[in-house]
Design brief:
about 290 residues; Rossmann fold; 6-stranded mixed β-sheet; about 25% strand; binds adenosine-5'-triphosphate; binds magnesium ion
Length: about 290
Amino acid sequence: MSATGVRPELRVVTDSAPPSPDAAAEAPPGVPFLAVDGVGKDYPLRGGGSLRALDGVSFAVRPHEICVMLGPSGCGKSTLLRMVAGLDAPSQGSCSIGGARIVGPGRDRGMVFQSYTSFPWLTVRENVEYGLRLHGETIALAEGAGEYFLDRVGLTKFANHHPDQLSGGMRQRVALARALATYPRMLLMDEPFGALDAETRWQMQELLLEVVTRERMTVLMVTHDIDEALFLGDGIVFLSRNPGRVREILRPDFKRNGRPATKEAMYDAPGHRELERHVMQLMRDEGKRA
Ligand SMILES: Nc1ncnc2c1ncn2[C@@H]1O[C@H](COP(=O)(O)OP(=O)(O)OP(=O)(O)O)[C@@H](O)[C@H]1O
Ligand SMILES: [Mg+2]
């Protein structure tokens, strides 16, 4: 794995933002940041036999790219994300970071799970700061990385609450803040905004874009939502199901001069509407195949 195990240096990014690890370590030239190569996954069935969840899935994610996996329920998005996180192993093929095969979890990858996972015995602030404490990031803690992200996800007032005192959307924001606060080189997110109301969802999507662009993080995320995929994805891997296969890889051309910073800017971008219609058509086709 490209994670060296050496604690990255910390640096102050801007006057207002907390310190973050230096993203200096890059994949060697010509090597994608993440390579998913011929990945298949079979799950054993209780009564014998097996279920093929993924079959021959290949795609690459470049450094600093946001790659979105989009596709219908059950096409294997979470399964693939868990393999990139190192929480599960492919039955065929491999996933590699910087040319090195993924064999387990690493601190180079931060994960936001589909079911928002917070530690119920910790307060909101302690949950957000959990990763920093785990990795001994005392400078980042002292400089307020936890406070900064609590504020950015709008939960400062709830810092001393426990997760069971929060709504589903608030818990999702805790999980996002916790993942961002450790500044992972690769952020893995499984439908991180699914439980949010529309306006909070835009805000969190825009926060994510701002932080990953500024910090040059590489992102692999899962969504059901076409609008979210088009707004966040530099590359969109559309998966079909039974078994999960790559149906199409899309690169929004309307982003050739950079990522739109707001939803409004995306809607105004030439080519956005055509791509949206194309992806809707893919979704409808998949619906018919169900
Ligand atoms: N641990 C498991 N054991 C057996 N089958 C599993 C397991 N995890 C997932 N599957 C099966 O693999 C397939 C893909 O599941 P997965 O959760 O990856 O889909 P998904 O695309 O994330 O769906 P959703 O959009 O609903 O979250 C499904 O058919 C599911 O039943
Ligand atoms: Mg899923």
